[in-house]
Design a protein that fits this description.
The chain is mostly helical. The N terminus is likely disordered. The protein is built from ten helices and three strands.
């Protein structure tokens, strides 16, 4: 039996020997990280610098892009080091720091997407009252809550996990994850499980209901409204809905990967599924919003290619 105070490092066992191909994988991961940083920083700068974009919808988008920078930075530097390394170990403090980064990213992303769906609901279903119901101060308050609540939840979760007595130090993933650490425990994990279930059936379910309700009302307006109303709803809601579905599927893949025995699946497939929601979402969102939202697209084109 190994006490948690004696676990100074964890072994990431999902990595496998790639020989000289590790340099190819390193280059691919590095290019992906650079693209994520470039795309998200570009849109953050565009929104912050242009006063015409200082509206609630774009402020929520800015929060979304900042979160994607934080989440990808919590994963990619470590992943790059591990790809080149022959011994895939990570110190316990850094492992919990990575858990904090990844889980904060996932939670903030979910909060952000839920608030954005509510914002679109107000804009489309109550256009005459939108400016009074969604002021800049209210948007700032929503953004603050979007970061504070997940932060507190993840801090509590990690505090509970760090206090467990562990019977091993092998994590069958390419990055540190909370649930595999909890499964290593040889002490009682009831409090951890209750904390997770309470959070799931209160906050997460509430956000799902808010998102579902918002889109049901938006769809109702689309089917009963004029052609112009439908076009406006589709132009602003399509990027958000696609982003929401992409993140939801990615998160579902990760939950299945963590909670169920996937040892029968190919190793590359398991790695892909576990990385999908934190690697492709930060690259996908800037593209989908940058290409579909007219104001952002025009400003980005003028910045990148000059005024036509």
């Amino acid at each position: 039996m190994v006490n948690s105070t004696h676990v100074s490092y964890f072994i990431l066992s999902a990595f496998f020997h790639t020989g000289v191909f590790k340099y190819l994988f390193f280059t691919i991961v590095m290019c992906l990280y650079v693209c994520i940083i470039g795309a998200n920083v570009l849109l953050i700068v565009v929104i912050c610098v242009n006063r015409s974009l200082h509206e609630p919808m774009y402020l929520f988008l800015c929060s979304l892009f900042v979160n994607e920078l934080c989440g990808s930075t919590g994963l990619f530097p470590s992943l790059l080091v591990q790809v080149l390394s022959d011994i895939h170990t990570v110190s316990a403090p850094f492992c919990f720091l990575q858990v904090f980064s990844v889980y904060t990213y996932g939670n903030v992303q979910f909060y952000n997407l839920a608030i954005m769906s509510y914002d679109r609901y107000l804009a489309i279903c109550h256009p005459l009252h939108y400016n009074t119901r969604m002021t800049s101060n209210k948007a700032a308050m929503f953004i603050t809550l979007t970061w504070v609540f997940p932060f507190l939840n993840v801090v509590i979760m990690i505090s509970l996990s760090a206090s467990l007595q562990l019977c091993g130090n092998i994590i069958n993933k390419v990055y540190c994850d909370n649930f595999p650490i909890v499964k290593l425990a040889c002490s009682d994990t009831t409090v951890n499980n209750v904390d997770g279930l309470v959070y799931l059936f209160t906050v997460i379910v509430a956000l799902i209901i808010l998102t579902f309700y918002s889109y049901m009302r938006i769809l109702r307006v689309c089917f009963s409204g004029s052609k112009q109303t439908r076009q406006k709803a589709l132009s602003t809601c399509t990027p958000h809905l696609v982003s929401l579905l992409n993140f939801s599927f990615g998160a579902l893949f990760e939950i299945i990967q963590s909670r169920f025995d996937m040892s029968g699946a190919p190793n590359m497939l398991r790695i892909f599924l576990s990385l999908y929601f934190i690697t492709f979402q930060p690259l996908f969102n800037p593209l989908i919003y940058g290409l579909n939202l007219t104001k952002i697209r025009i400003i980005c084109k003028s910045l990148l290619f000059g005024k036509m």
